[in-house]
Amino acid sequence: MEFRTIKEDGQVQEEIKKSRFICHAKRVYSEDEARDFITTIKKEHYKATHNCSAFIIGERSEIKRTSDDGEPSGTAGVPMLGVLENHNLTNVCMVVTRYFGGIKLGAGGLIRAYAGSVALAVKEIGIIEIKEQAGIAIQMSYAQYQEYNNFLKEHNLMELDTNFTDQVDTMIYVDKEEKENIKASLVEFFYGKVTLTDQGLREVEFPVNLV
Q1: Is 211 a residue whose pLDDT tops 70?
Q2: CA triple 39-44-47, angle to 5 deg
Q3: What's the alpha-carbon Rg for the chain, to the nearest Å?
Q4: Is residue 105 within 8 Å of 79, Cβ to Cβ?
């Protein structure tokens, strides 16, 4: 499992030609969850002129839905979706609430406004990459632990949950496809005198820098 999504839920707003655009962003993991979120925003902003939406669900972005919510066809939901696709995001729902300010934007202006609102939200909130990593528990002597930091630096790894008793017990998490290679490297590094135990999988979040 590996995918990109927003760092956290949030919202941003801006004013364009006296219309107020509020982009509400939420991590979602099912179509029902996305639709519940859209319904919640519509209830909260029932006086708004429009509550347009776009969401993508699934590790392979299998489900994509948009709504122009009364704006001219193709001027809101699809441009919003396009921004999510350009950033390779999934498991995310965006609702852009518009309070009309009296100045019409035209089709091109609407497309820029709705896409820009989502782009601003993505920039402000940030993106993370979620990977599934495999845990390896390591038992070693204190003498071995003195050298262990060299191994971590060489492989760009970080130790976790280290306990010091009559021996040293520690943990590392590695990409699933690298697990067997790392275990073999540990055995070689410690000349076969180390105990390794598989510890299952966990989700790890990595920040993604937006250029």
Answers
A1: no
A2: 105
A3: 24
A4: no
Residue pair 120/84 in contact (Cβ under 8 Å)? The answer is: no
CA distance 28 to 58: 9
d(CA 143, CA 147): 7
pLDDT of residue 65 exceeding 70, the answer is yes
pLDDT in tens, 151-193: 999 998 888 889 999 999 999 999 888 999 999 999 999 999 9
Scanning the structure block, which residue is given the tokens 């790894």?
A: 157
AA letter at 76: A
State the Cα angle at 99 between 22 and 74, rounded to 5°. 75
Task: Please enumerate in sequence order all residues whose Cβ is within 8 A of that of 23, keeping only pairs 6 or more positions apart, or say none.
Answer: 11, 12, 13, 94, 95, 96, 97, 117, 118, 120, 121
Among candidate residues 11, 5, 3, the one with its CA nearest the CA of residue 84: 5
In degrees and rounded to multiples of 5, residue 116 shows phi and psi of -65, -35
Cβ distance 96 to 134 under 8 Å? no
Nearest C-alpha neighbor of 178 from the set 197, 147, 200, 155 = 155
Alpha helix positions (H), the chain: 31-44, 77-86, 106-125, 142-155, 179-189
Residue-level length of the chain: 211
Q: Say how far apart CA 127 and CA 119 lie, in whole Å.
A: 11
DSSP string, 6-57: ESS-EEEEEEETTEEEEEEEEE-SSHHHHHHHHHHHHHHTTTSSEEEEEEEE
